[in-house]
User: Fold these one by one.
Assistant:
Number 1:
Amino acid sequence: MKRIEQNKARAGWGWLLGCWLIMALLGGCSDELDGGFKGEANKAVVRLDRLTPMPARVYDQQANAVKMAVAAMLSPGGTVMSYRPLQSYLEQKLGRPVQLIQRRTYQEVNEMLARNLVDFAFVCTGAFVAGQEQGIMELLVIPRIEGRETYQALLIAAADSAIRSLDDMRGKVFAFTDPLSNTGYLYPMSRLRKRGESVESFFGRIIFTYSHDNSIAAVADGVVDAASVDSIVFAHTLRREPELAGKIRVIERSREFGMPPVAVSSQADPAARQRYKEILLAIHEDPAGADVLAALGVERFVEPNPDLYR
């Protein structure tokens, strides 16, 4: 099974590399969101989300269905595998169907929360901060992982490359995750801004992968020279694929950031919101819930500390 998954991953990256090469031939939450991208037509920027339009998604409109959205911090396959046990657990606790809703970008999930189209969502830190500033979402709970409620951005490169610092990434191919990703975009952009640099002036070319595990695979497979990724996803990926440890080197670690939280729409029904919160806060006390948390790689959910997101 693992071999099949690896072959699928290689095939997927073959497609990705092909798209990247085609683009190269054709082209010859926070105030940091527009940093360095005012000239997106510049050949240094390859936006994978613009290659082909996504088909419209139609969701079951059952009045009693609970809708749980998940931002694509993992690639779609990884997200489904990780969150399906939680989906089943919530259905049992709530006595109602639960729909697992995925979107390709963090912004799409933010928009669904803004319109109160989902009951709650697992979002990234940068997307939450942006949504909080816009008044469209609020904290529900946050995950505690290995005793911590914070995580870091990691700048990574291939283990056998000559890259030893951010300076060595000048002129290289770099992978961002999503324009609203704290660790996969905002952090490296802030590092460039402090140097008076932009994407166009610093990197030779960039791509957006739209999940942290895709960025990790892009570095491991030589599709890009370096990337910025979520430390939690990085650790999870190495546990799942230990052979990657010999292929990737961590170049730099950021300061601590608040863990990607679970958020609700500011328009959410107070009673329903409280019920979801109660279930998530108590899930670690249930043996069946412990299996759910293990699939997510989470120790437990805890009351949110708003100071972590300011």
Note: Residues 84 and 130 are 27 Å apart (CA to CA).
Number 2:
Amino acid sequence: MENRHSTQVNTVMPELSRANKRPLYIQLFDYFTQEIKTKRLPYGCKLPSKRRLSAYLKVSLNTVDNAYQQLLAEGYVESRPRSGLFVIYRTEHLFPDGEKFRNKYPDTESEPQSDLIDFSHGKVDISHFPFQFFRKYSRWLFTEEGSCFFQNGHFQGLSALRREIAGYLYQSRGVISTPSQIAVGAGTQFLLSRLLSILPGQMPFAMENPGFHRVRSLVRDLGIPMADIPIEADGLAVDQIRRMDAGTVYVTPSHQFPLGMILPVSKRMALIEWANQNNNRWIIEDDYDGEFRYIGRPIPSLQGLDRGRSVIYLGTFSKSLIPSLRVSFMVLPVPLADCYKKRFSLYKQSASSLNQQLIREFMRNGDWEHHLNRMRTLYKQKHQAIIQAIHQYMDKAVAVIGEKAGLHLILQINSRMNEKELIAAALQEGVKVYPTSIYYAAGLKPEHPQILLGFAGLNGDEIGEGIRRLSLAWKK
């Protein structure tokens, strides 16, 4: 039988405070929920009548009624005709056997080691982030004058930011565009998903192998036929593209991901020639970390060489600023820009207008250029530190691949251990490194295991110590 005894109104009932900013009915509601959760008001217990409780607490009947209605709404009690309100909440209904549940579904996330050195390629240096400028611009944004950016932005992105991007890209990468050709969005994957919906989907989508696994996954999820093009010593095998009937080719020419080589001008021109032979052929140029090059002069973008006819240019602020801003952009050829406007004019902008305006202010005032120059110098120093440490501790045990640009490099390991064993051995020494096998399409893998090392998020001492630990781990 259920326990249906009535609570007794006595001195354990709450003393409601009219000086408290919280409404009286909320104070009463909080009291009852606490009593119910701690089982001082157990399952099946009957609550006092509204009149009795209001008289005891010297509050209005409406106050008690509002508290009881909230208890009903949130499922703590139920109303029984001509009987009153009864407690129906009990934790064992939610978790019948909490201990068994925890054992069956343990929390697999663990706290990272305090001394773990993480060579993640997705991290950037945050110690040199321009905090003072962003604080200044943020203070301005959160004023009445800046509050115009509190609303939803234009579906293509703030026009003022797109103007800054167009000017910067022309000066730095030779990209030829107008603000109306630029679309801003919350990350490259998001923009790619929109782009692929307006490109011809019946023809194969060709991409580098190895290449960005997130792009490959996106294309597959959208049901678009794929063709994987192998990477040669100097980049994409353009000759293979000429022999196939692809509609779109996705490339990372300034710093091939993950292997790091730079596509030479001869191959760039051959790729552009292939695209211009047919109005339904497009090249997607992902310039994900094109700002950072350490050897030689910058090579012009594919988009600039093509003068914007067949090349779609992708860029991001994730590497040059911080990933959490979630602001990326793409430059579309005029025909595709027109398609984009027709297709997505009713869609909401996905990137925060506040973040967009922060970046715009940063670029407009010249702080962006100074910041990039500082980061280029800083990352060049880190690049030199990791190369020197590899030479010092590993010597001929590894080959370095793709070290001329970007914020990561590849170590090809001469070892009896396979990729999985190398990563596990590194973790035993307190170093986290990353596989490259995930970037290869099925059926292709390197002859020797290759490990990816990002260095942007580490300081010089951490880089040196990390490489030293790796040398110990991989000698075992």
Note: The longest helix spans residues 367-393.
Number 3:
Amino acid sequence: MKNIKYSKYERGQALILITFAIIGLIGFVGLVVDGGLAYSDHRHAQNAADSAAYAAALKHASDSTHNLTAETLAARDIASLNGYEGLAQSNNTVTVTSSASPAGSCPNASGSNVDYKVEIVSRLNTTFARVVGINQMTSKVFAKSRACDSISSGPLYAGSAVFATKVGTCGNGQKDKSLFIQGSSKLQVWGGDLGTASLDGNCIDFAGGEAQLKMQESGTRCANVVTAAPATENSDATWTSLSGQDGCGQKLFNQTIPAAPADLGITCSGTAGPVTSGSSTMNPGNWSGDFPPSGIKTLNPGVYCVTGDFNINNKANLSGTGVTIVVKTGGLKWNGGAEIKLSPPTSGNTKGLLIYLPPSNTSDVDVNGNSNATISGTILAQNSNCYFAGSGQLQKQTIQFICSTWGMNGNGQAEIMYDSTMFYSPSTDPAIILIQ
């Protein structure tokens, strides 16, 4: 057997190989352990960013003041609860920014719509990976949320300037009709339909007076008659006083009509009353008795909840800007020579709603005598009969009537303009969306 001799220079090679093997093994362990920790931290940071962005949007939706500082703080608080303080001494950075939502990103939404971006940069000190020169691993994540203010589906009975919600059959009596024009009254409607939910063709009666349906002044929309009744016009239905201009005045039968809205649940806080003793100006709130009280000529902006009649009968003139009048019980009676100038709020939950009789209130809405009114917005009295009689005038008013029945008699004149942007639109709660 041949003897094998080793050089003294070969001694220790195994130690070198073992050393490199250990380094490689530690590097592999570092990849597994530190890499796993970094992956876990990345997932945790992403969840923290998502929650923080959502918190900012939620703060926006729950606080009508829309305080940007408070919304940013809400996001930072959630990030901090998840371990990402973003302070100078911390090993991470938290950045919260906001911007207006892009046009059209909140369909039919009104108010202040905001996008929030939360960015978290997390720096994780390594343990085993230091052996291979990796002392720190960095994760950078971000999340975006969107807060859409109240979202609207559009005006009630979209397209209708006058809509009768009565769904039953109609007899021969004049006031039993859903829509009627009688006497020498004159109605002109620009761009807004006359609509009825009844399946009975007898419910439309244009036998007297004059009804003209016209193109919107902007030239974009016609005024027509919209009804759920079948296409065959009932022999008892009379259309002799109805005419259209500019190609308007079509009769649209068999239309699908949405159900009448549920109670809006509008409430008032505090007690309404004169600003000061003897003042002719009134503050909003709850009021019991005839409204407005004697001597009141001006209504301050706000919501008035009335238990009693909204009764203007040879009283002093009444004006109010940005008002909603909820007639909880009692009816509306405008008579005599008073001049009435009222307009609804232009923002908030009652935007576009001028007068509201809840579904539980079936009292009549009467505009009689020779009163002149300058009013705008929606009059929603879905279970009430609405009458416009006498010699009163509505001259080119942007207004929407929604009543159980609606009719004109006497020699009154009504000129109604349709503008959906000025009418009441039911809204949902603010929408909160995590978009990225």
Note: The two ends are 76 Å apart (CA to CA).
Number 4:
Amino acid sequence: MNDHTTHPLTLFRYCPRCGSEHFEVHNEKSKRCAHCGFVYYFSSAAATVAVITNDRRELLVCRRAKDPAKGTLDLPGGFIDMYETGEEGVRREVREETGLEVLSADYLFSLPNIYEYSGFMVHTLDLFFGCTVADARRLEAADDVAAAFFLPLSEIHPEDFGLESVRKGMALILDELKATSPLS
């Protein structure tokens, strides 16, 4: 298992194009094969985060069923699949994790993150979307979510969220909400 200080390119030993062991550091973002000339650039994977509130000033939160950060709070979301837009990805993830149908998804902001998956540190760019959903009474935890529930905004504490980008995102969201109206 690697940590945040191990550069992900060190894990790639062979050229993915020709299989040569002469897959060497090209610069801080890429490796180049001395045999076939293939250059591989390491970049962030795209992921989504859904910010869903109801008319009672509550936020939909999830409890993580799996590592990383198993048992901590999270927001619905996950990796965007190939050929999906961010909006399609957030709709699919919300449906998979909560059973809810997203009616609209409005881009809010993005934050970088490092997410451990299968012992590999995946660099992500987490796209936060403000979402409205149909019939929140149909809420049901599924997929990699142990529990899903609405929590009053006044009881939200960023430090309770297990993933760094979500903690930072919650701090930004709460600051914005406090600036527009009190949370209590």
Note: Residues 10-41 form one domain.
